[in-house]
């Protein structure tokens, strides 16, 4: 059994392909498919009595990543959760990574990253703090290209919370009761 490609890639394909046989059925598997591999392939079988061949046209179906659902900026409280989801297409399904500024985010105790086989996924960060505010980017890549999805200047922003704490203190004087109202303005920064 012999496979050949009528274009000039047969030499390269010899290193990137695998001939698989089971009983009388033979399959050519080409790994790391690229658009350059498109073309006509011929399968030739021969013995001392005859030679038979079959020609097949191969069309590579690779598509670069494309985000069909963008991540959106959020506001949340300090100690709360930040949740971003995405949907990306591409063939093959792209690999997805998350970044805060230029630094890659890895899953951990307070960070869950899910990338589904259908191209959807999310990142869920728990117990976020002030230093977690900033620009978050979702990058998708496959052999055909790369795409990024980000929002504005800041994907995670902090709400400013003002709280007024008033304490009414009673002091007993000699013959009078003094009322003192103490008010303190507390400035809190939340997520």
Automatic annotation (TrEMBL):
Membrane-crossing ranges are 160-188
Principal subcellular localization = cytoplasm
State the compartments where it is located: Cytoplasm
Residue ranges annotated for the Ig-like domain, each copy included: 65-157
- Would you say which domain of life the source belongs to? Eukaryota
InterPro entries on file: Ig-like_dom (IPR007110), Ig-like_dom_sf (IPR036179), Ig-like_fold (IPR013783), Ig_I-set (IPR013098), Ig_sub2 (IPR003598)
GO cellular component: a single term = cytoplasm
List UniProt keywords, sorted A-Z.
Answer: Cytoplasm, Immunoglobulin domain, Membrane, Transmembrane, Transmembrane helix
Q: Does the keyword Cytoplasm apply?
A: yes
Instruction: Report what the protein is called.
Output: Ig-like domain-containing protein
